[in-house]
Amino acid sequence: MACLGVFVAYLPVTSVSVSLTAIQSALSTTTSQLAWVSDAFVLPMAAFILTAGVFGDVHGRRKVFVTGLLFSAAGAATSLTAHSIGQLWTGQALSGLGAAALLPTTLALISHAVPDHRERGKFIGIWAMCLLGALAVGGVLAGTILSHVGWRWIFLVPLPVVLVAVVVSLRCLPESRAPRAGRLDWPGQITAALAITALVYGVIEGGAGSFGDTPVIAALAVSVVSGVLFVVTERRSAHPMLDLALFRSPGFTATTLVAMIMFLGMIGFFFVLSLYFGMVQRLDTLGAAWRLLVITGAALIVSGIAGRVMHRLSPRLMITTGLLMVTAALLTLLGADAGTSFGSLSWRLLLLGLGMGLVTTPMTATAVASVPHPLAGMAAAGNNAFRQVGGALGPAVLGALLTSRAVSSLPGHLADAGVDASLTGQVTAVTRDGGLGAVSSIPLGAEAGQVWGAVSEAFLDGMRVCLIVSAGLTFSAALLAFVLLHPRLGRRRSVSVGGEPGAQVAGGTERRRVGTETPA
């Protein structure tokens, strides 16, 4: 059931990602509005994932699991009937709330069922395979659907899966709670949600317009103040939503920072890559999905292998090597252009997927195993929360960089292509207001080929900036993992639970002293 739940949670990610070009064309959206399609899903997931984890520990994980499935179904149904960008955002937000409930609950279910951290690594590997399987299947299903019917029908796919999962959960899944569970930390929840929402809003709107605009400055200020209040609140709370003592564990700190940085770079790059396939290579959705399947398919296979060999290989070695492979793959993609063949792209995308698969399982398993067993659910929720913050910022940050660089270089490419000065001015003005996709809204006449060629070159300029930034982020994550997961650093730290001695961690792996957990 944990595997089915995470499959439902992540199914919308690539299915929506590969459909962005079709959505933009059908709803006539700007680039910033299109970024909010992805962020409307990721943002509530990041903001409420910690609360969902605590709620499951206190009131029962099966209840939260089923609630998450129902929110996912409501979101899919809302998006299925969407005829405006606002309704699509609403549907995505509901699906994001469902994913927020499912992610920590599924890992807590595994932690409850398999208390031995060595044995647990294998099952977290299977969990990670299902997560990546959802990413792989979602894109291909969406591409197949869009080849025959409209983009809205991609949201029909999760509904029967959710129905089956709800029925089986209510009939077969036992209820469980955490020992010594506290109560919901509402001050922490409110300040965390404000900080995350204001930060992502400020970055998206600042990238679309100017970071000097009053609403953007206000949003970023609210984010900083709320973040400080969150830290103060959690330090003083008797039942914190996120126990800051977790960060005494180098394993938890390393994997949490790595997750956030990696997802900022990778989810943001997937957003850019899907636009590259649609706007530059002029592929249909299915063609784009097959190319993304190279990444997710490779990651799926490697993550399963990683889960089985984790007890024999150092998580530090696996995570650092995987991140360096991702960095190398991103740098090799700098040479891609409009005419790059699938064969030339495939080995680069394969390397990217292999690196991702090598990181995903040990990163999650290390975060859970590096703290005492009673804190495993909170550690899983915290790791996922920071991961989703990075995922929410990714499309915002890289979308802003893409638009800024592409729009600034477009006039030069139009001039090089010999486009008439009057049409050049018109195209430039439209793209400054609505992004490169807005070019399709104006008549181009006989110079359409020249204009679209210039747009493609401008997009590639922006994509190369995004690739450099993403590669820099993943390389910095590799350095963090290499330093913080060092065994000697881990042996000097411990984490306590409620004043009791905690787990000794070595290189992010639990050494001894775990509590036990019993079903309610």
Automatic annotation (TrEMBL):
It is found in: Cell membrane. Residues 509-520 have a biased composition (Basic and acidic residues). The chain crosses the membrane at residues 35-55, 64-86, 92-114, 126-147, 153-174, 186-204, 216-233, 254-277, 289-310, 317-335, 347-368, 389-407, 462-485. It holds the Pfam family MFS_1. Keywords: Antibiotic resistance, Membrane, Transmembrane, Transmembrane helix. The keyword Acetylation does not apply. Residues 496-520 are annotated as: Disordered. The keyword Ubl conjugation does not apply. It comes from the Bacteria. Residues 1-489 form the Major facilitator superfamily (MFS) profile domain. It is a multi-pass membrane protein. PANTHER family: EXPORT PROTEIN, MAJOR FACILITATOR SUPERFAMILY MULTIDRUG TRANSPORTER MFSC. This is MFS transporter. The lineage of its organism: Bacteria, Bacillati, Actinomycetota, Actinomycetes, Kitasatosporales.
